[in-house]
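Any chance you could type out some protein's one-letter sequence along with its backbone structure tokens so I can compare the two?
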Amino acid sequence: MNEKFHSQSTEHQSQSFKESSEERVPNDFQEQRKSAVPSLLENEALEKDIDWFREKYGVEIEFGEKEKLEEKEGFLYKPASLKRKTELLSSIKKEITKLPRKLIEKIGLKKIVIWGYIENEKEELAGTIKIYKGEMNIAWDFCFFHELFHSIDFQTGGHYKKVVSLEEMGERAKTIKKNREWSELTGVYDHKYVQLYDEEQSDYFAYLMNLDKGGEWYLENLTYVNKRNKVHYKKVREMKQLIYEWSDGLLDWEFWRDMEKGAVGENY
């Protein structure tokens, strides 16, 4: 009996070791293969999207691969993971289809650089845009249209044309009357998220371009700041009129109605 038990026990231990050793070696290799396959697929998807941006809109896509500090502007850029690159580029691809190539070219967007993190003086930023170079640096998709509007603002007589340098923009921009007398709708504008009129206008444009999603967080942010809905809706009307004129009538009132319905996209 003892011998039988011992025999069974030894056989069980031997088989257990055999199974564990067989599982351990191949599984390590299998796990490597499993993790490698999505990476290859993601890289392939990235390449396709990069080609799509170039062919459809004439926009180059780059990925920040090394941490970069721009001392003059005070911006710190950190690279994104492969997963983040894939997600962000896919999302921006959906967003950019809301505008025809004609308007993207008018905006002057030539390059989008994707990052995992952007910081300015210890404050996280969603994105930045270098208007003269047509280069957008982006870490969060919700700021895509916000950054685009800065270029529109420049073209429609915004404060970028009225200040000598970026360094002077801070205080002087607060006293400059915006195009279409935007500042007179609320008087002095000051909020922890937005302290310049052009930043508020950029948020309104982003809000309108996200109406298909209910405006996301922009609606809550903007109505909170303006407190009274009638002021908010005045600004919505002003922004729609500004964009109508800038786009030579392409983005009209029907466009915004279709945006709310979720009908604006690649085949619009």
Notes: The CA atoms of residues 207 and 220 lie 10 Å apart. Residues 2-57 form the longest helix (56 residues).
